[in-house]
Write a structure and sequence with these properties.
221 residues; mainly alpha; 10 helices; globular
Length: 221
């Protein structure tokens, strides 16, 4: 608690009010620090996921830390155990459980299954508290992840088939296509929940996700 307070005080002292409130929302999960006007702007643009501590943030940070550890520690079992300790957070249980399963698989030289990992996370969240299924954040998180698991790779493979002749540009094209596929999959699968819960959905969310996700990934890391 003291560390969080010191972070918040540091933001307030060294940044403008808007910047400080954004940093508190993204890094500390204090979304209430944002003015209603800023929250409405993010909601209208369909990018509210950028201003809350989410599974995306945990995945980015865990992947970044794992990459650093991989360069230093050669023992696969040891570095996987370190990631298990660093990658679990109560506020992002779904992502934490899925990452724990993935890194556990690396420890035992096995490949984690995404659907099984998502199912385990769902059980851990709903068995102790069945009413969790009514939580908007959980519904959006699970539907977005499920959409990515089921659709993203198929969309990428289909589109990359159209660029088979562009061998020199394969990596940049593949990166762009994967980003597009993930954004489309997550946006389409979460649209019904957004309409049901909020009565509206932003048609710009897919485009903005494609533009902003790379920058946000770098900044969060």
């Amino acid at each position: 608690v003291k560390i969080r307070e010191n972070f918040a005080d540091s933001f307030e002292q060294n940044m403008s009010q808007d910047c400080a409130s954004l940093c508190r929302a993204v890094l500390l999960g204090e979304k209430t620090a944002l003015s209603q006007e800023i929250q409405n702007d993010f909601t209208r643009c369909g990018v509210s996921f950028l201003i809350v501590v989410s599974g995306m943030h945990l995945a980015i940070i865990s992947s970044f830390v794992f990459l650093c550890i991989k360069k230093i520690i050669k023992n696969r079992v040891l570095r996987s155990m370190i990631m298990l300790m660093c990658g679990f957070a109560p506020s992002v249980v779904r992502a934490g459980v899925m990452l724990a399963v993935v890194y556990s698989g690396k420890m035992f030289m096995r490949k984690g299954d995404s659907l099984n990992s998502l199912g385990i996370a769902a059980l851990i969240l709903t068995v102790p508290n069945p009413t969790a299924v009514a939580d908007v954040g959980m519904l959006l998180s699970f539907t977005a992840t499920l959409g990515i698991i089921l659709w993203a790779r198929k969309i990428s493979v289909y589109i990359m088939g159209k660029f088979a002749k562009l061998k020199r540009l394969k990596k940049p094209v593949e990166f762009t296509v994967n980003l597009f596929a993930v954004s489309v999959s997550a946006a389409v699968w979460t649209m019904p929940i957004s309409v049901l819960m909020f009565g509206k959905v932003s048609v710009f969310s897919i485009l903005l996700s494609i533009i902003l996700s790379p920058a946000v990934s770098v900044l969060v890391a």
